[in-house]
Amino acid sequence: MTKDAPAATLREADFAEELGERYLSYALSTIMARSLPDVRDGLKPVHRRLLFAMRELGLDPRSGYKKAARVVGDVIGKFHPHGDIAVYEALVRLAQDFAVRYPLVDGQGNFGNIDGDNAAAMRYTEARLTIVAEALMNGLDQDAVDLRATYDGEGAEPVVLPSAFPNLLANGATGIAVGMATSIPPHNAAELCDALRHLIAKPEAPVADLLQFVQGPDFPTGGVLVEPPETMRVSYETGRGSFRLRAHWQVENHKNGLYTIVIDEIPYQVQKARLIERIADLLTNKKLTLLADIRDESTELVRVVLEPKSRSVDPAVLMESLFRQTDLETKFSLNLNVLDATGIPRVMNLKEALVAFLEHRHEVLIRRSNFRRAAIERRLEILDGYIIAFLNLDEVIRIIREEDEPKPALIARFTVTDTQAEAILNMRLRSLRRLEEMQLRTEQSELREELGEIVAMLEDPKKRWKLLDFEIKEMRKRFGPDTPLGARRTRIASAPSAVVVPLEAMVEREPITVLLSEKGWIRALRGHDIDPARIEYKDGDGALFSLTAETTDKLLVFATDGRVFTLAADKLPRGRGFGEPLRLSIDLANDQSIFALRLHRPGTKLIVASSDGRGFIVPEEQVIAQTRTGRQIVLPADGAKAEFCVPVTGTHVATVGENRKILIFPVEQLPTMGKGRGVMLQRFKDGGLSDVISMTPAAGLNFPFGTRQRTVTDLTPWLGDRAGAGRLAPPGFPRDNKFGG
Length: 741
Description:
Mean pLDDT: 91
Distance between the termini: 91 Å
Structural class: alpha+beta
Low-confidence stretches: none
CATH topology of the largest domain: Neuraminidase
Number of domains: 4
CATH architecture of the largest domain: 6 Propeller
Helix content: 25-40%
CATH class of the largest domain: Mainly Beta
């Protein structure tokens, strides 16, 4: 602004309000003009403009191809003022049969492949429309939809396509807008047609009834859908959910009992080259110990060959290990977030999306019928004028020859309309044959009959819906399951059974020694023959726990707050050094410590107890934690801590208190629980619990006695029921009140 500029050009404004207004405008533009598809034709603006530009260029399925650069130039020059790269990428995707279930563009040249290779430059590729795209635009020249001015005001473009094909659900869509996103998987067009016809017959049908026809997504790359039916029903009823998709594989048997596994279909949107690289990396890092080799023998068809380590490897177990570690199993999300007929974004369920499509087709039918009705009425008006001319041919010729202004004379003489008079004057001489009059009367009769049918249909909703049902039936014939394009590709299978995959299928089994120091540093050393004297610790630190394990084991870490944490042995820090703090792997409170470290052994039962003498039995399977926050098992009382964890190995439980009294009672008197405070093991007047073990009275009670072990065989004084006070320990019992052993 110059120094002499008037002050009226300045305006004070709140920065937050101005920023919010502009961001809202940007968000609305992103949502409505870029990212979300329209529920009626399933297209975003760039796709709609692409197809319309190709139609304007005459690129129908029966014509020749034109350079993609020509198409892109027309799109950005007339309809879509954005970058040519983005427009070309949209065109390429519409032509990829591995990306779009029903391609809308017929491409010629290199349009990329399933390995993730890019398409050739637009100057090298050519394109034209497919029959599906043609169906989407059928009726554009019959006033089927509204048109709006293009961005430069020099032309017009359709607001939405007539869409004689359920493109939204058939081809799906993905997009990310501001604050919202959409993710719609592709479906089988024939199944959608069956569901649409069912809705026409029974408009009140719930989503569950529609799922009798729509079996689930139908991806262009095939695969196996293994989502449970109940989960799919909930997803389609809410418009949100996900679908679990697996690669399709089969076993090829060879001589001497050998076999290979052949993967011939991979999940949707998974790049084959990256998938094979991932499997090869896992194989190199010894994470797939059941797999010997992988080969890519693909041509235009996918063929990935897997060789097992030996003939004894179960193919199902090998594949399950791959499903868990690679993109051979993926999840495709469902978020049916679309723009409705009024341009408002919202999440629809399956029925709402199908009903919106039917309502759009109903409106298109009415508009096309009115257009045809008007055309017939105009033609009938002209035909009536022609017939008047034939009946009065000599007089018409005289007027034309003698009158300076023949049109007004014709109107005055025969009471015809201006349109009829103009048509009579424009008649060719060759049309004055007698045969032509007969043809005109035949055409007039046929048009009046057609007009009567159109008027009757427009006045009767039942007839309109019957005609729509017929159109959908004909569409199903074109894209039915017996056609190459319409045959279902994705197989529907039941949810996979719980195939037990041993950890060694994904981790190489290797002996290790696990060390946990007093300061909480954990590490794993290779082998079991570790000399304790040669193990070094940080200054001021020392050994707390040491146990031998294998890399396929799971470790259970018990904390004094009653939580149990699970560690994978193969994930422990290895090599030289002091390891790393255990707190980096688990969320252990600063005021809590570790009181036990043990290997997980399925089927084992544990006695867990707190310092106040309360405890219970818990199956070891129920203490496994899936997250670093652990699992709360023991709920200590105020002032108490969880301090004991011993496996149930005998028929009785022996406890000793800080008062040096021992109690032995049957293990059956302890309840089995998954979580809680437990019951009183031994009652104390003062102090708490010092130790607890599982034992069998017939074997006696063992405890350290100097440098030797002492066994007390007569345990009668100490036998009793749970929650008793117990009797003083026998002479020589350790002063630390620990059973030892």
